[in-house]
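Re: folding output
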Amino acid sequence: RHGIAFYRACLQSAIASAVKDVFNFLIDQEHNHVRIFTEMKKALADDDLPEDYPGEMRNYINSFIKKEVFDSPAEASRKAAELKSPLAAVDFAIDFEERSIRFYSEIKPRVRRSESEKLDRVIAEEQSHIGRLDNLRKKLAE
Protein backbone atom coordinates (compact mmCIF):
# COMPACT_ATOMS: atom_id res chain seq x y z
CA ARG A 1 0.00 0.00 0.00
CA HIS A 2 2.94 2.30 0.63
CA GLY A 3 4.21 1.75 -2.89
CA ILE A 4 0.79 2.49 -4.36
CA ALA A 5 0.64 5.76 -2.40
CA PHE A 6 4.13 6.73 -3.54
CA TYR A 7 3.54 6.02 -7.23
CA ARG A 8 0.12 7.72 -7.21
CA ALA A 9 1.57 10.83 -5.58
CA CYS A 10 4.30 10.93 -8.23
CA LEU A 11 1.63 10.77 -10.93
CA GLN A 12 -0.22 13.69 -9.37
CA SER A 13 2.87 15.87 -9.39
CA ALA A 14 4.46 17.82 -12.20
CA ILE A 15 6.83 14.94 -12.90
CA ALA A 16 4.05 12.63 -14.03
CA SER A 17 4.38 13.05 -17.80
CA ALA A 18 7.83 11.48 -18.06
CA VAL A 19 7.11 8.52 -15.80
CA LYS A 20 3.38 8.01 -16.32
CA ASP A 21 3.34 4.67 -18.15
CA VAL A 22 5.92 2.98 -15.94
CA PHE A 23 4.43 4.27 -12.69
CA ASN A 24 0.90 3.24 -13.74
CA PHE A 25 2.28 -0.24 -14.47
CA LEU A 26 3.95 -0.30 -11.03
CA ILE A 27 0.70 0.75 -9.33
CA ASP A 28 -1.03 -2.24 -10.95
CA GLN A 29 1.80 -4.51 -9.82
CA GLU A 30 1.63 -3.20 -6.25
CA HIS A 31 -2.13 -3.83 -6.20
CA ASN A 32 -1.37 -7.42 -7.20
CA HIS A 33 1.14 -7.69 -4.36
CA VAL A 34 -1.46 -6.40 -1.88
CA ARG A 35 -3.81 -9.13 -3.10
CA ILE A 36 -1.14 -11.81 -2.69
CA PHE A 37 -0.26 -10.74 0.84
CA THR A 38 -3.92 -10.38 1.81
CA GLU A 39 -4.53 -13.97 0.69
CA MET A 40 -1.47 -15.14 2.61
CA LYS A 41 -2.74 -13.37 5.73
CA LYS A 42 -6.24 -14.88 5.41
CA ALA A 43 -4.75 -18.37 5.17
CA LEU A 44 -2.62 -17.81 8.25
CA ALA A 45 -3.97 -18.92 11.59
CA ASP A 46 -2.55 -17.21 14.67
CA ASP A 47 -1.13 -20.49 15.91
CA ASP A 48 0.82 -20.99 12.66
CA LEU A 49 3.43 -18.47 13.73
CA PRO A 50 6.26 -19.57 15.99
CA GLU A 51 6.25 -16.56 18.30
CA ASP A 52 7.78 -16.09 21.72
CA TYR A 53 4.88 -13.76 22.60
CA PRO A 54 1.59 -12.83 20.91
CA GLY A 55 2.09 -10.22 18.21
CA GLU A 56 5.85 -10.75 17.91
CA MET A 57 5.76 -11.18 14.12
CA ARG A 58 3.46 -8.18 13.59
CA ASN A 59 5.73 -5.99 15.73
CA TYR A 60 8.79 -7.20 13.82
CA ILE A 61 7.23 -6.53 10.42
CA ASN A 62 5.92 -3.10 11.41
CA SER A 63 9.32 -2.10 12.77
CA PHE A 64 11.10 -3.29 9.64
CA ILE A 65 8.66 -1.47 7.34
CA LYS A 66 9.06 1.82 9.21
CA LYS A 67 12.83 1.53 9.08
CA GLU A 68 13.24 0.25 5.53
CA VAL A 69 10.28 1.53 3.55
CA PHE A 70 7.84 4.24 4.77
CA ASP A 71 6.15 4.95 8.08
CA SER A 72 2.79 5.12 6.34
CA PRO A 73 1.13 5.68 2.97
CA ALA A 74 0.89 9.38 3.92
CA GLU A 75 4.67 9.44 4.39
CA ALA A 76 5.07 7.86 0.96
CA SER A 77 2.91 10.59 -0.58
CA ARG A 78 4.85 13.30 1.25
CA LYS A 79 8.15 11.92 -0.01
CA ALA A 80 6.88 11.84 -3.60
CA ALA A 81 5.79 15.48 -3.32
CA GLU A 82 9.35 16.45 -2.33
CA LEU A 83 10.88 15.01 -5.50
CA LYS A 84 11.64 17.75 -8.00
CA SER A 85 12.31 15.86 -11.22
CA PRO A 86 11.33 12.69 -13.05
CA LEU A 87 14.89 11.41 -12.62
CA ALA A 88 14.71 11.96 -8.84
CA ALA A 89 11.40 10.09 -8.73
CA VAL A 90 12.83 7.17 -10.68
CA ASP A 91 15.94 7.04 -8.50
CA PHE A 92 13.79 7.00 -5.37
CA ALA A 93 11.50 4.36 -6.90
CA ILE A 94 14.51 2.12 -7.58
CA ASP A 95 15.62 2.55 -3.99
CA PHE A 96 12.08 1.78 -2.80
CA GLU A 97 11.96 -1.41 -4.87
CA GLU A 98 15.38 -2.47 -3.55
CA ARG A 99 14.23 -1.91 0.05
CA SER A 100 11.09 -3.91 -0.68
CA ILE A 101 13.21 -6.82 -1.90
CA ARG A 102 15.28 -6.65 1.31
CA PHE A 103 12.07 -6.70 3.33
CA TYR A 104 10.62 -9.69 1.47
CA SER A 105 13.94 -11.52 1.69
CA GLU A 106 14.05 -10.82 5.42
CA ILE A 107 10.58 -12.21 6.08
CA LYS A 108 10.92 -15.19 3.74
CA PRO A 109 12.47 -17.50 6.38
CA ARG A 110 9.59 -16.58 8.69
CA VAL A 111 6.72 -17.58 6.40
CA ARG A 112 5.31 -21.03 5.91
CA ARG A 113 7.09 -23.11 3.32
CA SER A 114 3.87 -23.21 1.28
CA GLU A 115 3.96 -19.40 1.01
CA SER A 116 7.64 -19.20 0.13
CA GLU A 117 7.02 -19.64 -3.61
CA LYS A 118 4.59 -16.72 -3.63
CA LEU A 119 7.22 -14.59 -1.96
CA ASP A 120 9.81 -15.70 -4.52
CA ARG A 121 7.48 -14.56 -7.31
CA VAL A 122 6.96 -11.18 -5.67
CA ILE A 123 10.74 -10.76 -5.24
CA ALA A 124 11.27 -11.65 -8.92
CA GLU A 125 8.62 -9.10 -9.92
CA GLU A 126 10.28 -6.43 -7.78
CA GLN A 127 13.60 -7.22 -9.47
CA SER A 128 11.96 -6.79 -12.88
CA HIS A 129 10.55 -3.45 -11.68
CA ILE A 130 14.09 -2.31 -10.95
CA GLY A 131 15.12 -3.25 -14.48
CA ARG A 132 12.19 -1.37 -15.95
CA LEU A 133 12.94 1.67 -13.80
CA ASP A 134 16.62 1.53 -14.71
CA ASN A 135 15.68 1.61 -18.41
CA LEU A 136 13.48 4.63 -17.72
CA ARG A 137 16.33 6.29 -15.82
CA LYS A 138 18.61 5.83 -18.84
CA LYS A 139 16.03 7.37 -21.17
CA LEU A 140 15.54 10.34 -18.86
CA ALA A 141 19.29 10.87 -18.56
CA GLU A 142 19.67 11.12 -22.35
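--- second protein (sequence, then structure) ---
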Amino acid sequence: MRQPHDASGLERAMGYSFSDRRLLIRALTRLAYAKERGLDPAAHMDALATLGDAVIDVVVIQSLVAAGEHDKGLITNRKTNCVNMTVLRRLAEQLSVETYVYWGKGEEAQGVWTSGRVLAECMEALIGAVYLDGGIDAAARVLAKIGLRCEI
Protein backbone atom coordinates (compact mmCIF):
# COMPACT_ATOMS: atom_id res chain seq x y z
CA MET A 1 0.00 0.00 0.00
CA ARG A 2 1.29 3.42 -1.00
CA GLN A 3 2.11 5.89 1.75
CA PRO A 4 0.93 9.48 1.22
CA HIS A 5 3.56 12.14 0.71
CA ASP A 6 4.56 14.36 3.61
CA ALA A 7 1.77 16.93 3.82
CA SER A 8 4.19 19.83 4.32
CA GLY A 9 4.45 20.02 0.52
CA LEU A 10 0.70 20.48 0.35
CA GLU A 11 0.87 23.20 3.00
CA ARG A 12 3.50 25.05 0.93
CA ALA A 13 1.39 24.76 -2.22
CA MET A 14 -1.66 26.08 -0.35
CA GLY A 15 0.32 28.86 1.29
CA TYR A 16 -0.91 27.81 4.71
CA SER A 17 0.77 26.07 7.65
CA PHE A 18 -1.54 24.36 10.10
CA SER A 19 -1.20 25.17 13.79
CA ASP A 20 -3.10 21.96 14.54
CA ARG A 21 -1.65 19.31 12.22
CA ARG A 22 -4.33 16.88 13.40
CA LEU A 23 -6.84 18.89 11.38
CA LEU A 24 -4.70 18.53 8.27
CA ILE A 25 -4.35 14.76 8.76
CA ARG A 26 -8.09 14.45 9.38
CA ALA A 27 -8.81 16.40 6.19
CA LEU A 28 -6.65 13.93 4.28
CA THR A 29 -8.12 10.76 5.83
CA ARG A 30 -10.86 8.97 3.95
CA LEU A 31 -13.65 7.18 5.80
CA ALA A 32 -12.64 3.83 4.26
CA TYR A 33 -9.08 4.23 5.55
CA ALA A 34 -10.31 5.19 9.02
CA LYS A 35 -12.62 2.17 9.18
CA GLU A 36 -9.91 -0.22 7.96
CA ARG A 37 -7.56 1.05 10.64
CA GLY A 38 -10.16 1.11 13.42
CA LEU A 39 -9.65 4.84 13.93
CA ASP A 40 -11.93 7.05 15.98
CA PRO A 41 -15.17 7.81 14.13
CA ALA A 42 -14.20 11.50 14.06
CA ALA A 43 -10.82 10.79 12.41
CA HIS A 44 -11.97 11.08 8.78
CA MET A 45 -12.70 13.95 6.42
CA ASP A 46 -16.46 13.71 5.89
CA ALA A 47 -17.58 16.36 8.40
CA LEU A 48 -14.76 18.67 7.28
CA ALA A 49 -15.90 18.32 3.67
CA THR A 50 -19.41 19.42 4.63
CA LEU A 51 -17.99 22.36 6.56
CA GLY A 52 -15.59 23.25 3.76
CA ASP A 53 -18.41 23.30 1.22
CA ALA A 54 -20.21 25.91 3.32
CA VAL A 55 -17.03 27.93 3.95
CA ILE A 56 -16.25 28.06 0.22
CA ASP A 57 -19.77 29.32 -0.46
CA VAL A 58 -19.42 32.03 2.19
CA VAL A 59 -16.04 33.17 0.86
CA VAL A 60 -17.32 33.34 -2.71
CA ILE A 61 -20.55 35.13 -1.80
CA GLN A 62 -18.65 37.54 0.42
CA SER A 63 -16.26 38.38 -2.43
CA LEU A 64 -19.12 38.90 -4.89
CA VAL A 65 -20.93 41.24 -2.50
CA ALA A 66 -17.68 43.11 -1.77
CA ALA A 67 -17.17 43.51 -5.52
CA GLY A 68 -20.54 45.23 -5.80
CA GLU A 69 -23.02 42.48 -6.63
CA HIS A 70 -26.28 42.83 -4.68
CA ASP A 71 -28.84 40.90 -6.71
CA LYS A 72 -29.65 37.63 -4.93
CA GLY A 73 -30.29 35.70 -8.13
CA LEU A 74 -27.10 36.89 -9.80
CA ILE A 75 -25.06 36.12 -6.68
CA THR A 76 -26.47 32.60 -6.59
CA ASN A 77 -25.84 32.05 -10.31
CA ARG A 78 -22.28 33.35 -10.15
CA LYS A 79 -21.52 31.30 -7.06
CA THR A 80 -22.88 28.18 -8.74
CA ASN A 81 -20.81 28.83 -11.87
CA CYS A 82 -17.68 29.63 -9.86
CA VAL A 83 -17.81 26.80 -7.34
CA ASN A 84 -18.74 23.37 -8.58
CA MET A 85 -17.35 19.87 -8.63
CA THR A 86 -15.30 20.50 -11.78
CA VAL A 87 -13.65 23.63 -10.38
CA LEU A 88 -12.86 22.02 -7.02
CA ARG A 89 -11.50 18.91 -8.71
CA ARG A 90 -9.23 21.04 -10.92
CA LEU A 91 -7.89 22.87 -7.87
CA ALA A 92 -7.25 19.55 -6.10
CA GLU A 93 -5.46 18.18 -9.16
CA GLN A 94 -3.27 21.28 -9.39
CA LEU A 95 -2.22 20.66 -5.78
CA SER A 96 -1.78 16.89 -6.39
CA VAL A 97 -4.04 16.33 -3.38
CA GLU A 98 -4.46 12.66 -4.28
CA THR A 99 -0.81 12.03 -3.37
CA TYR A 100 -1.41 13.25 0.20
CA VAL A 101 -4.68 11.44 0.96
CA TYR A 102 -4.95 8.33 3.12
CA TRP A 103 -7.05 6.11 0.83
CA GLY A 104 -8.78 2.91 1.81
CA LYS A 105 -7.39 -0.25 0.17
CA GLY A 106 -10.31 -0.59 -2.23
CA GLU A 107 -10.24 3.12 -3.07
CA GLU A 108 -6.57 2.93 -3.86
CA ALA A 109 -6.97 -0.20 -5.97
CA GLN A 110 -9.75 1.46 -7.95
CA GLY A 111 -8.07 4.86 -8.23
CA VAL A 112 -11.22 6.57 -6.94
CA TRP A 113 -9.52 9.98 -7.14
CA THR A 114 -10.16 9.86 -10.89
CA SER A 115 -13.81 10.49 -10.04
CA GLY A 116 -14.56 14.19 -10.00
CA ARG A 117 -16.60 14.16 -6.83
CA VAL A 118 -13.97 12.41 -4.72
CA LEU A 119 -11.23 15.00 -5.29
CA ALA A 120 -13.76 17.82 -4.93
CA GLU A 121 -14.69 16.42 -1.49
CA CYS A 122 -11.02 16.26 -0.55
CA MET A 123 -10.64 19.93 -1.49
CA GLU A 124 -13.69 20.83 0.57
CA ALA A 125 -12.27 18.93 3.56
CA LEU A 126 -9.00 20.83 3.30
CA ILE A 127 -10.81 24.17 3.27
CA GLY A 128 -12.93 23.06 6.23
CA ALA A 129 -9.74 22.20 8.11
CA VAL A 130 -8.15 25.56 7.24
CA TYR A 131 -11.28 27.31 8.51
CA LEU A 132 -11.20 25.47 11.84
CA ASP A 133 -7.47 26.10 12.19
CA GLY A 134 -7.27 29.74 11.07
CA GLY A 135 -10.73 31.15 10.46
CA ILE A 136 -12.57 32.54 7.47
CA ASP A 137 -9.79 34.94 6.46
CA ALA A 138 -7.29 32.09 6.29
CA ALA A 139 -9.70 30.06 4.18
CA ALA A 140 -10.22 33.03 1.84
CA ARG A 141 -6.45 33.50 1.48
CA VAL A 142 -5.93 29.83 0.66
CA LEU A 143 -8.71 29.86 -1.92
CA ALA A 144 -7.20 32.94 -3.57
CA LYS A 145 -3.70 31.42 -3.47
CA ILE A 146 -4.77 28.17 -5.12
CA GLY A 147 -6.62 30.02 -7.85
CA LEU A 148 -10.32 30.13 -7.04
CA ARG A 149 -11.56 33.23 -8.87
CA CYS A 150 -15.08 34.60 -9.09
CA GLU A 151 -15.61 37.89 -10.85
CA ILE A 152 -18.70 39.91 -11.48
